[in-house]
């Protein structure tokens, strides 16, 4: 695995992949390389304008690729339902769902449904999307769900009694909690799939420190110019490229050896380098916490995964 690159991605012809947040950063690279290897790729993007620009760019970089755009706003459960319905009307199979989109360390705010922004977008939106597409995944041999977490999950466990950070909000605390939720969701999804005899693989990945707009989007939107400049310097001096950051996701999505509940990240200090199994906090492997988060997420989103009995 130490020398694994995009050249090692197996042939993807006949496979359909949905990649959230595919208009930029590691999401764009992930979608592009899957298309390059023959997958039909759905770019699931919040901004139709940026999504269309990404589609045009990808079409020029992979002229023979099969790519389409469907709008998806993970901060609006109505949009998540619309996306799932639109996709399901066109196809009864789904080989790969990459839960990649997210926000990082933004000011306290609420989604369209009233959830804390980072928990709502990074976890609940993807939980609902996965649940709504689950019948198609279960119907597709070799299907996978890959959820992008972060090494920052080590910063904080979730508080099951304060998932929306109503008692205490800190932008990095909330981000760490949302990334822990990504890993706990993967753990519980993998457990439930196995308990129900499904061969669908649920895995997680993280990009290490990759130079994308994730670091600067929040400060830019909030007008925090000093923080924005600091992040841009960090990206230029310390970070690996988006291409390097996408490798763990691509490995988790395509490599034959990936096991359920794997967590794949960069090989050097969880920061950069070829993909390999990554360390994770023990609280992300807690069955009871995973089940409680799953139950709470079903209640909050109204999406109940009846196909997977606990």
From TrEMBL:
SUPFAM superfamilies: NAD(P)-binding Rossmann-fold domains. Keywords: Oxidoreductase. GO terms for molecular function: oxidoreductase activity. Gene3D superfamilies: NAD(P)-binding Rossmann-like Domain (3.40.50.720). InterPro entries: NAD(P)-bd_dom_sf, SDR_fam. Pfam families: adh_short. This is SDR family NAD(P)-dependent oxidoreductase. It comes from Streptomyces phaeolivaceus.
């Amino acid at each position: 695995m130490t020398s694994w690159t995009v050249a090692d991605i197996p042939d993807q012809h006949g496979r359909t992949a949905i990649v959230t947040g595919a208009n930029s950063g590691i999401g764009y690279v992930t979608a592009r390389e899957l298309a390059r290897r023959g997958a039909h790729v759905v770019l699931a993007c919040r901004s139709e304008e940026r999504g269309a620009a990404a589609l045009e760019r990808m079409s020029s970089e992979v002229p023979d690729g099969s790519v389409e755009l469907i709008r998806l706003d993970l901060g609006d459960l109505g949009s998540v339902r619309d996306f799932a319905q639109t996709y399901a009307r066109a196809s009864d199979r789904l080989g790969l769902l990459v839960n990649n989109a997210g926000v990082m360390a933004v000011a306290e705010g609420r989604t369209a449904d009233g959830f804390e922004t980072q928990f709502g977008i990074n976890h609940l939106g993807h939980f609902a999307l996965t649940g709504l597409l689950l019948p198609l995944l279960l119907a597709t041999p070799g299907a996978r769900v890959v959820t992008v977490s972060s090494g920052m999950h080590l910063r904080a466990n979730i508080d099951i009694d304060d998932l929306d950070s109503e008692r205490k909000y800190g932008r990095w605390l909330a981000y760490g909690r949302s990334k822990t939720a990504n890993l706990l969701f993967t753990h519980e999804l993998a457990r439930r799939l196995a308990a129900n005899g499904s061969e669908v693989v649920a895995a997680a990945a993280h990009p290490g420190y990759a130079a994308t707009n994730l670091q600067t989007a929040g400060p830019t939107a909030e007008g925090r110019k000093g923080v924005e400049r600091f992040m841009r310097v960090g990206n230029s001096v310390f970070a690996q490229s988006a291409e390097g950051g996408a490798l763990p996701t691509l490995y988790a999505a395509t490599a034959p050896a990936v096991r359920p509940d794997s967590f794949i990240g960069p090989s050097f200090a969880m920061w950069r380098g070829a993909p390999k199994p990554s360390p994770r906090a023990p609280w992300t492997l807690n069955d009871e916490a995973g089940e409680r988060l799953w139950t709470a997420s079903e209640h909050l989103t109204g999406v109940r995964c009846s196909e997977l009995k606990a």
